[in-house]
Specification:
heterodimer; A: about 280 residues; about 75% helix; globular; B: about 425 residues; alpha/beta; six-stranded mixed beta sheet
């Protein structure tokens, strides 16, 4: 045992992995270090360096102090906005995706493959192409500059992914299970709630992680369809960086970036192992 | 038939009800209101527009500003979305030829009367005025000016070179760079690695070699000028500059290297006037550097204009219209332009503003004088690198060629000139 762990090939693998990890973590390390340095310190020195004294004030400024034009409330209100968009949109799109995936995989009907194909086509449309159609839709239903509008967009656009994920997972569920339930008199939704959903744990975790990360990090729709106090945190973060006649606020920016990334980071740390497990669950069967 | 009448009545009734508040406002004192979008959110830009908003409120207006930062792209997306939704802002930030392009998308406000009342046209650089009245009528107003070809000289690098003369021509400039190199300055030219940074070096070179050729080739896109000897000479000068730069800078913002510049490890910087604000806010002192107009071979200042502006979109609401008039008056007001430029470090658009008083830096005074002289000598031209000379697509095509040339030193100046002409042809 001891021999094996010290075999040269082992050492080489660990070395390679450590190197790759260091390369990946280096930018994060720079951001963390800069979040604890003052702007002057960064400007008078270099972008990369140890903090001379820990400037925790960057975090305070990022959280509730810095100004986006006339409003000086930090990123706190925008974090709340992001949560108000991300949580419902993640739940709705995951649930609808599960129902849709279940319908096209287990509840075969005429044209089901076509519908599935059309829904997943949405994956291939670039975001920019969808801006104008969404503008018209939001205008006509009066949801421009509202968080509800963003929830609608993310719910509908998320369907392509969530349907794809769930469908591929459900395909592996034996049809006999459904047939038996139907003989017992269960309908579409009863089978869904009682049989399919309890079996869906791994894939639901995958879709939730996926959707949450994407919606939280989304920027283009957030910045285009909302203004001022309605903006999600990604849009507010950019506000912090866009100064022409000023030294970039590297310290506060770094702190704000770290705060803004915490929710997705937590989701990954808590659900990361299920993510891979869920994705491969179908494949192993 | 009866249904139609009812519908019509209903419609007429509801229209009247909806119009009533607006009508009432029109009758009494309308409180001017302004919806504005800009990309100014942080730092001194944010502070300047906030101060402008305060002035607007002091005059009895309602100020509704939405910053859409992230530079041009996001703001353009937002503007497009708002126009499509039939709800354009009363005014929005827009600059250069994009003003003409966007004015075809939605109706704009005719500002001729307000501009005439303010006597504004006489005090604005002619090329700049042209940009803001694309159809012959003023539809947008410039707010502040930066020059993109100011020359910043590091005091310590000058000491190392034992030089004290500010270079006026490119020959002087090259001379000084050699002296710096010999005196132990590793990189006589300070540089960042962004596209506008490379673009600025080219435009400064060409405009300094021949403002006339710059106007013909870059602003008017004349084929003959694009293939002319001046373009090749400009590329040759850019190569010299590139040889004096630190090649290991990557795609960094110019501010990353300010310390090296101040320490005298980098000697001269060709940058917009905004760099003095950045230097000041980074904690450096004005004694650390000198500012002068960029080199020009005919010995007279050449000024590459970069101006931020507001375009005004047509609105039917009486309060928004009143707000637009008030905003236009404020933007053209010498006192407001003074306030704005003193916060950001730019210079006022009005050439009749006196900069001798307190609150102005020597750099700003130098810049303002350079602009005045350049206008007098017909050498105030529009910056290509900062989207003032051409629409965004054309600018991108040109900068692609320039930036590749700066980084790839196997490309000959003649080849670069041919490529530039081809790129312009392709983007037309």
């Amino acid at each position: 045992m001891r021999e094996r762990s010290f075999a040269p090939s082992r050492i080489f693998i660990y070395l390679a992995v450590a190197l790759i990890a260091a390369a990946w973590l280096a930018p994060l390390a720079v951001v963390v270090l800069n979040s604890l340095r003052t702007n002057e310190e960064i400007a008078q020195g270099s972008m990369i360096g140890w903090p001379q004294h820990l400037a925790w004030s960057n975090y305070a400024a990022a959280w509730s102090g810095f100004c986006v034009a006339e409003t000086c409330a930090g990123i706190r209100p925008y974090m709340l906005n992001s949560a108000l968009v991300t949580i419902p949109a993640t739940i709705f799109s995951t649930l609808l995706g599960a129902i849709a995936g279940y319908a096209v995989s287990l509840w075969r009907f005429r044209g089901d493959n076509w519908i599935y194909g059309i829904v997943t086509l949405g994956l291939f449309l670039p975001q920019q192409m969808r801006l104008l159609p969404w503008t018209i839709v939001l205008r006509d239903i009066g949801l421009i500059n509202t968080l509800a509008g963003l929830v609608l967009i993310h719910t509908i656009q998320g369907l392509s992914f969530t349907t794809l994920f769930c469908r591929n997972y459900y395909v592996a569920i034996p049809h006999e299970l459904i047939r038996a339930a139907r003989i017992d008199g269960a309908g579409f939704f009863r089978i869904f709630w009682r049989i399919i959903l309890p079996l869906s744990g791994p894939i639901l975790i995958v879709t939730v992680i996926w959707q949450f990360t994407h919606i939280w990090n989304e920027f283009l729709y957030g910045v285009t369809f909302t203004t001022g106090q309605q903006q999600p945190v990604t849009a507010a973060l950019i506000a912090l960086s866009a100064a022409v006649a000023d030294i970039p606020q590297h310290g506060v920016q770094s702190a704000a970036v770290i705060i803004a990334a915490l929710p997705t980071l937590l989701i990954y740390l808590l659900g990361g192992k299920y993510f891979v497990r869920g994705l491969t669950a179908g494949a192993v069967k | 038939m009866p249904i139609t009448i009812t519908r019509r009545r209903l419609l007429a009734g509801s229209v009247a009800t909806l119009a009533l508040p607006a009508f009432a406002r029109a009758q009494g004192a309308v409180k001017p209101r302004l919806t504005a979008i800009s990309q100014w959110s942080a730092g001194s830009d944010g502070a300047a527009i906030t101060a402008l908003g305060k002035k607007f409120e002091e005059k009895g207006g309602v100020w509704q500003h939405s910053p859409v930062p992230g530079f041009t792209t996001e703001m353009m997306n937002k503007l497009r979305a708002q126009i499509m939704a039939g709800d354009p802002p009363a005014c929005s930030q827009l600059k250069g030829p994009e003003i003409a392009a966007w004015s075809k998308i939605a109706p704009t406000v005719d500002l001729d009367a307000v501009v005439a009342a303010a006597g504004y046209e006489k005090v604005v650089a002619p090329d700049l005025a042209k940009l803001h009245k694309p159809g012959g009528k003023w539809i947008a107003l410039p707010l502040q000016i930066y020059s993109t070809n100011m020359l910043f000289l590091s005091k310590r690098a000058m000491d190392k070179a034992k030089a004290d003369k500010i270079p006026v021509t490119w020959a002087d400039f090259n001379d000084l760079a050699e002296k710096m190199k010999a005196g132990g300055v590793p990189y006589p030219i300070a540089n960042g690695g962004t596209r506008p940074d490379d673009g600025q070096k080219f435009e400064a070179a060409l405009a300094g070699i021949s403002p006339l050729a710059y106007r013909a080739a870059i602003m008017n896109l004349e084929k003959k000028a694009l293939e002319g000897a001046e373009i090749k000479a400009a590329f040759a000068q850019v190569r010299k500059i590139a040889d004096w730069m630190d090649p290991n800078v990557g795609a960094q913002h110019f501010s990353t290297n300010l310390k090296r510049f101040v320490d005298g490890d980098m000697g001269m910087m060709i940058m917009g006037g905004w760099a003095q604000g950045v230097l000041r806010n980074a904690g450096f002192k004005f004694e650390d550097f000198t500012i002068a107009p960029g080199p020009c071979d005919n010995g007279k200042p050449v000024f590459l204009l970069n101006a931020d502006a507001f375009i005004f979109w047509q609105r039917k609401e009486a309060d928004l219209q009143a707000g637009q008039t008030l905003m236009a008056q404020l933007v053209m007001d010498p006192a407001i332009q003074t306030m704005y430029s003193q916060i950001t470090g730019s210079i006022p658009v009005r050439t009749d503003v006196d900069l001798s008083g307190e609150g102005w830096s020597d750099g700003q005074r130098t810049t303002a004088k350079a602009l005045k002289d350049a206008i007098a000598g017909n050498q105030a031209v529009l910056s290509m690198a900062h989207n003032m000379a051409q629409e965004n697509g054309m600018t991108a095509a040109m900068i692609d060629v320039i930036t590749e040339y700066v980084k790839n030193k196997t490309i000959k100046p003649e080849q670069a000139a041919t490529r530039l002409a081809e790129a312009v042809e392709g983007a037309r």
